[in-house]
Amino acid sequence: MKERSYWLASGSYSILQRLFAFIFGFGSFFFLTRYFPVERFGVWALFIVVTSLVEMARTAFVQNAFIKYYKEPGLDTDALFSSSLLINFISTLFFIVILLVAIPFLVTFWNTEEIGPMILWYCAASIVLIPFTQLNFLEQANHRFKGVFLGNVTRQGVLFFCILTSFIFFPNLPLSLFSFFYFISTVFGLLVSYYLTRQYLPTHYVVTSAYLKKLAYFGRYILGTGITSSLGKYFDQFILGSINLTSVALFNASVRIINMIEIPVLSIANISYPKFASVNAENSLHEVARLYEKTVAAALAIIIPVVLVILTLPELVLTITAGQKYVSVTEPLRIMAAFFILMPFNVQFGNVCEIINKPQISFRVNLITNILSVVLNLYFIKIYGAMGAACVFAFTLLFIFIVGQLYLRVKLSVNLKNVAVQTALFYKSSFLFLRKIITTKSLDV
Fold it and tell me: Residue 232, Cβ neighbours under 10 Å: how many?
């Protein structure tokens, strides 16, 4: 696939996927905050914390190692897929066992019986996610994204449709039914993904110990990074849930808004990962550094205007997204939005470490950061509640940014001035493009 075609196709699908994820995710959040009282929505927020933590960790263990090695010369891709599928299966069962054992503790810790049956439905969904995610990884490794896009859009769209139907026609449904909707939506996503991706499936299935070791060796650092990152990202809500369910619901409203800004950052990181791998294999570390600067600048240029709106009008943003009863968390939202500017630097730092075969660096930085985050959250949340959680969030982003930039400057000669220049050039190009459209009154520019 030509360079321009790759970026156009992959970029379009990835951005569209994130766009639909935003639409359906925001829609689900919008209606659920108005369907449930604040306290009961807090239970749903904790359910999403559990599912997100597990999915992030499990995906991190399997996905990047498989994509990285899939295009290596001389590899048996069928055997690699089979070995990766087995690792996916084993890791999923591992997390399911942990969740089942943890149910009594979570029921007591969060003081809610409803979380138990909800986790059971997620365990069922996890089984379905094994083939679903593996098909996604396979298509990404082949530099195709249609099945990934439509499979995930179907999954999110079915869940949104169930929530919307319940909001309109069926008030006062139990929370456990919504976790069942989560399971059903995953099944539909798998069916669509299989239909669109089946042509890439292996002609034979064989598991080799050599490939298992290869995948597991690389994936162990990514798994460690995924687990520690997930803990750092969700531990604040985990602790807030032990204080009271209202606190976690209110703070979750700010987190959801931040997650919306994250869409372009993760989209760019997703489509640039295979190109990072190609650049490192075919050129030099200098080219990796330049690509890092360009991708970070592209993400910054997109999110800076959104961050400025949140900093200026946090009450309006919270009222529109979650409702009037959630506007008490404006200051935590401001703090989180201000420091979110550092996120593009940190996300691509992790990608670069993996591509240059230094995943242990990203793992250690994330491990140290998230240990600090856990310790600080235990202290500050007990005293300051949601404000304490927001301050710890800001600290973790700042810490990773400082350490990451010091490492990249020494290893790859990454220059923050280049990032600033590339960001300015992005705005200049966008302005010239829009002016030409207005002048010519045509999109054919």
Answer: 23
- pLDDT higher at 175 or 263: 175
DSSP state of 203: S
> Which letter does DSSP use for residue 204 in this model?
S
What does the DSSP assignment read for 101-129?
Answer: HHHHHHHHHTT-TTHHHHHHHHHHHHHHH
The most distant pair of C-alpha atoms in the chain lies apart, rounded to whole Å, by 65
Whole-angstrom Cα distance, residue 40 to residue 37?
5
In the chain the first and final C-alpha atoms are separated, in Å, by: 24
| Other beta carbons within 10 Å of 66 | 26
Residues with Cβ < 8 Å from 319, sequence gap 6 or more? Answer: 326, 327
CB 95 within 8 A of CB 58: yes
pTM given for the model: 0.77
277 touches 68 (CB < 8 A): yes
Closest CA to 394 of 342, 341, 336: 336
